[in-house]
Amino acid sequence: METPDGAPILPKAELHLHIEGTLEPELILELAARNGKVLPHPTLAGLRAQYQFTDLQSFLDLYYANMAVLVTEADFADMTRAYLGRAREAGVRHAEVMFDPQAHLARGIPLTTAVAGISSVLADSFDEFGITTGLIAAFLRDRPEDDALDVLGQLLAMDAPIIGIGLDSAEVGNPPSKFIRLFDRARDAGLRLVAHAGEEGPPSYVWDTLDLLGAERIDHGIRCVEDSRLVERLATGQVPLTVCPLSNVRLRAVDTLAAHPLPQMLASGLNVSINSDDPAYFGGYAGANFAALVDEFGFDADTLERLAGNSIRSSFARDARKEELL
Ligand code: HPA
Ligand code: ZN
């Protein structure tokens, strides 16, 4: 099977996906109408015109503003269902989905609303979409660690069905060292550990994410190529890096896709997978990311298989599920 762009559809896992970043403009307007919310840009054309970013922060401003339309459990459920439908079309058969609990709490939305809305759909994802799933609570690194610890405590107390924690939002100026106690607490609770690092932040943030936080996977990690010792460390340990090519282009982490370090990362033997990050904002889902890579770099079938295989091997899926997908 092929996508309309000619890239083969391989079974794959999506490991770096913010569910709030799957809110398509059409759904934003629909939910705004449903909840009586007046948006600053109330038309589709007006809203779409906002999707031009100069850096991570310029995207985050819109991403957090658009979340205002998520009010009820049904809103969170509808968003999650829409993502799974699109992911299925792109060949995703296992998805580890991040959400931002603090962003919803800060808007006065109870944690139970967000968690129940998302997890009710994830619970049926295999039966409905043939996709196994896991939920990851991502903490906002531009907020104090005590706030994150408080919210993690609430998630654990309510027995939220999360498999792990992550770290996202504004990276530069919010180093991994700020969150050592959070990661220790999550580890003690038996949770898996991932974190964004080396998207806009320097290679030292990737080192510290491994050494101080004990993260098992690095989200993005593309700036590792600036430090050959770090590349060696990541290659030797086969540390998974969840790379998001279209996101990096749209947020200007790289000048163009042609200038993306992915080919160099592959040549260095790094364990990279391809992910869509915030697909409603960055120009497409996993399929569009793969298609853009084929178009730009002419990746052959072996490379595409390696990327898809890495995503499955680097997932937190059960071994039997991984074997089924490989
Ligand atoms: N980077 C950091 N934080 C985020 C992102 C991202 O790409 N998407 C949503 N929160
Ligand atoms: Zn991300």
From TrEMBL:
Domain Adenosine deaminase: 11-326
Residue(s) at site: Important for catalytic activity: 220
Cofactor notes: Binds 1 zinc ion per subunit.
Active site: residue positions: 199 (proton donor)
EC number(s) reported in the record: 3.5.4.2
SUPFAM superfamilies (alphabetical): Metallo-dependent hydrolases
Cofactor list: Zn(2+)
GO cellular component, one term: cytosol
UniProt family annotation: Belongs to the metallo-dependent hydrolases superfamily. Adenosine and AMP deaminases family. Adenine deaminase type 2 subfamily.
Stated name of the protein: Adenine deaminase
